[in-house]
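Running co-folding for nicotinamide-adenine-dinucleotide.
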Amino acid sequence: MKTKIGVIGQGYVGLPLALAAASAGFAVFGVDSDLEKVLQINSGNSPIEDISNEEISLLIKTDSYRCLTHVDSTFDAEVILICVPTPLNSGHQPDLSYLRSAVETAGKVLKQGGLVVIESTIQPGTTRDVIVPILEKASGLSRDQFLVAYSPERIDPANKIWQVSNTPKLVAGLTDEAAQKAKDFYSKFINQIDICNSLEVAETAKLLENSFRLVNISFINEFAIFCQKIGININDVIKAAATKPYGFMPFYPSVGVGGHCIPVDPLYLASAAKEAGAPTRFIDLADQINLEMPSYFVARADEILGGLKGKKILVIGVAYKPNVADIRETPVAALITGLKKSGASVAWHDDLVKTWNNQSSAPVTDQYDLAIIATPHDYIQLSNLGNTPILNTRGSK
Ligand SMILES: NC(=O)c1ccc[n+]([C@@H]2O[C@H](COP(=O)([O-])OP(=O)(O)OC[C@H]3O[C@@H](n4cnc5c(N)ncnc54)[C@H](O)[C@@H]3O)[C@@H](O)[C@H]2O)c1
């Protein structure tokens, strides 16, 4: 009989993980509070770009995977993974409400000896101080009667090279036994598992990874402004510097950062650091530089057109990164708002996103005064722009 696994949260992280475990021979139950999403998945329609309809249908047909809206006390999964959002609240502080609720769900069905693994991004100390007490209360068990681990997700949507199976995974346990059990489980479908010395090390490593990206992306964005001012192509500079075989890692310019991780996770770190009385000046400055990038491109557009009032502008690509339909925290929203505030008439094209803010993707034509390339999806053809001037936020052409 197959070992049963529960994966709470079937989004960009939980669904690929659930399907990877199902393909490895586990009987996986995805759990998601979004009824529409559950119906969509169970009818074999993938809600995310990286997963095909065929993959879902095949795993459903072979009884390896099914999606549920909730679980009851008969749910007897040996391992429960938690992959729900950990956003910021309106005060820009960590919002753990989804996580608390999902952990409570897990606690209610947790059996003696069962393993719960948190995959969501959290601050150091959250698994030990927040998650474990909720599990104890909801299950009626004490912490030595079940196993708890933390294993931060490293999924990079639309990355064709680094996927679930070949991206090394960190795990840490409340106990050595929990860490080992989590490692044994993930080893069935992930090539390399590294055990960290403590839950807090694994939690903080995830915040370091994403803060590193935020700081370097903001640095290259500021650097791109300098290159533009002196009339050289930033991408030529990066290509030249990247020939150095050690001590350099290329990052590329853009309108800023977006998505559920890079703009959010460093603020989890900043909030934890503030509590600890440690400074996070790099993060604060990086955040500020990225937030200023849309205004910089509004000013560039203004300069190119000699004023924006009444000008027709097409913004190409509105998702937060190329080749995904995800518009969460997209910096393109601020770009469009800034252009409109300056009096431009703005349309946008993105056939992956299709509809956004009650507007539909407009076709690429030569009927505009300016086209701004914000997010260059691979499918986008620029030939229909004819002689329309182009402002490329990804560096000069
Ligand atoms: N998206 C990424 O690229 C990525 C990468 C690494 C880490 N992460 C982290 O992983 C976590 C999940 O992110 P995501 O991008 O998969 O989010 P998502 O929004 O794509 O998916 C989360 C899903 O959880 C469901 N959900 C919310 N509360 C629930 C509950 N109480 N019970 C059941 N289902 C519930 C939502 O309906 C949604 O479908 C976050 O902490 C994020 O920071 C995301």
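Result summary
The longest helix spans residues 199-230.
The chain has a mean pLDDT of 96.
Job closed.
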